[in-house]
Design goal:
By secondary structure, the protein is of the alpha/beta class. Helix content is about 35%, strand content about 15%. The longest helix has 22 residues.
Length: about 210
């Protein structure tokens, strides 16, 4: 089984999202974006939530990211809520959604509105077919593409009035990376026997999303 050490990740070149990011903070614009995404056969998925630094603090999902191969739509749910068209897209089994640690995302979505997500593929399970035992998006991406997904924005304020360019880039990359990993593996472009990274005994690593 393949794994990569954190110190090795830090030495890799930084990964970037080279596509177009579209920030949506109202229901009308979100409806148009959902109409477009509903015509796609497969999209990347992720969410962001404002971090809590005090015991007892709780924040709801502030951002839902849905990515195609060259665009990422950022739905600011802290401003418009989980709209009905967006719920229907998340529940549509005909549009395949690729995500990581999706169980946590689904729990967060249901804090916004009742939602029964369908058509999702969990990367943590999918990558095991390719002898990858690491469970975090950062590590999986590093093993496959030899690039480092920076997590510098993860603990930033996702409920800010305006998202910074750094936040937008980070959020877009995470959703797009899920799609890129799945597509790359599915099309047979990754050979585990050629990987330069550590081969370790097969064991269950605790689920992690970062």
């Amino acid at each position: 089984m393949l794994s990569i050490d954190k110190k090795d990740i830090k030495e890799l070149p930084i990964a970037t999202f080279g596509g177009r990011s579209i920030v949506l903070d109202n229901a009308a614009d979100a409806r148009q974006a959902v109409a477009y995404l509903s015509k796609q056969s497969i999209i990347g998925f992720d969410t962001e939530t404002r971090p809590s630094f005090k015991k007892g603090d709780f924040h709801k999902v502030a951002l839902i990211q849905l990515a195609t191969t060259d665009e990422c739509f950022l739905f600011r749910t802290n401003k418009m809520g989980l709209t009905e068209p967006l719920i229907k897209l998340l529940e549509n089994p005909d549009v395949i959604k690729i995500g990581l640690s999706t169980k946590d995302d689904f729990h967060g979505l249901n804090q916004l509105a009742p939602c029964s997500p369908a058509g999702f593929i969990e990367l943590q399970q999918f990558v095991k077919k390719f002898e990858i035992c690491d469970m975090s998006l950062q590590r999986i991406y590093a093993i496959i593409f030899g690039e480092h997904i920076s997590k510098g924005q993860r603990l930033s304020n996702w409920e800010a009035q305006t998202l910074t360019p750094g936040q937008i880039g980070y959020a877009s990359l995470d959703a797009w990376a899920c799609l890129r990993i799945y597509d790359y593996l599915l099309n047979g472009h990754f050979d585990p026997s050629m990987s330069p990274y550590t081969v370790v005994p097969q064991e269950t690593e605790s689920d992690e999303k970062i």
